[in-house]
Amino acid sequence: MNHRRALRAAVTIAVTGALAAGMTMTLTSTASAGTTLRASAAEKGRYFGAAVATGKLSTSVYATILNREFNSVVAENEMKWDATEPQQGRFSYTGGDRLVSHAQANGMSVRGHALLWHQQQPGWAQGMSGSALRNAAINHVTQVATHFRGKIHSWDVVNEAFADGGSGGRRDSNLQRTGNDWIEAAFRAARAADPGAKLCYNDYNTDGINAKSTGIYNMVRDFKSRGVPIDCVGFQSHLGTSLASDYQANLQRFADLGVDVQITELDVMTGGNQANIFGAVTRACMNVSRCTGITVWGVRDCDSWRGSDNALLFDCNGNKKAAYTNVLNALNAGPAIPTDPPTDPPTDPPTDPPTTPPPGTGGCSASVSLNSWTGGFVATVKVTAGSAGTSGWNVGVTLASGASVTNTWSATATGSTGAVRFANVDYNGRLGAGQVTEFGFQGTGSGAGITPTCTAS
Ligand code: XIL
Fold first, then answer.
1. 47 Cβ partners below 8 Å, 6+ apart?
2. Domain 364-456 coded CATH 2.60.40.290
């Protein structure tokens, strides 16, 4: 075959192929855009999620709706403390892992719910108090967030820590009695364990500007001003027969603090207003550019924890309800999240200056950031390679008397009291010139005076 004919044939095939691909793409997007919750939310830069009980994934009506309509999931129970650490120090991730796999196979992101909460604690934790409980709680946060690292879009780090009623203060609980700083200790531990997840505070009865939501607002403002790592606030929105007129204004005032907001557990009591309320909540979220997604607390009415309230978007046979249509219309009518949102200044605390001399021609340096409370601490250590880079490092610290390391991540510890050494694990050993890695450890006793020194090999 002469070259020209061969070329023409190839071009024809290429053009036909491109046309076919183009047509398919057009058809696909026309067919899906605006007709499912997940496609409509995604078009607007948001997610639409559902709480899932993994036992139902094998029910085909359930799985069909879930996979068709939702692009985010949260475990209704399977990532809670009682499920993930049924005995102290013995972790169980079966349900959570199963949900993550399902999500990954179906193009869904995962909300993590919830690292610390006064309810659904394992029996052993319910009976604890003081620094033993604080240490156990922080260890729980560290272990669970580390297990799921890289797989969670947003974590509810702390759930329902504020009191109902007019006080605007904290709820009494065993966790609260370990000291008012328990929430920030949890957020710092979660950040150290999974720096890529958005860290949320989540609560209910916050559906408008009221004493409880204002208490939370003040905490978030304080956290932002002091560099406590918080990225988002979840509004559960378990709703009755009316919606606060300042629902959107409340979301907006949190967004204005520099955090994302998410509707995290939406369900609405049945009755004449149900469909309107679902629509109004969706519109409110769409009107707040930092409202990044909505999660409903279950798929069908019969899946709901709210018994006979028929509180969800699908009836028990899997049919779409009027509430569904209102939500879909509101998603389609709403604005998209601006593609280039203004970036906030970094919220994490400035890291301490290196405590060893800056890297010279070789070697490495290490600096520590400490999160301490009475009876315990978490140390996050940053290792920086010198100008020659390193293929392995070793960091030494000397602990105060009475202090001991109980748990280490992203490094291997030798010793637990007095002079303790930490060696790199495989994946963070090799560092180019000036490159940085991080590891951490938790201890009991005082973290005062920890000054890391680094040796490179
Ligand atoms: C509920 C679950 O839906 C139920 O299956 C379980 O028995 C109790 O917890 N706020 C929350 C959720 O943050 O974790 C709760 O989920 C509902 C209220």
1. 38, 41, 71, 72, 109, 153, 292, 293, 294
2. yes
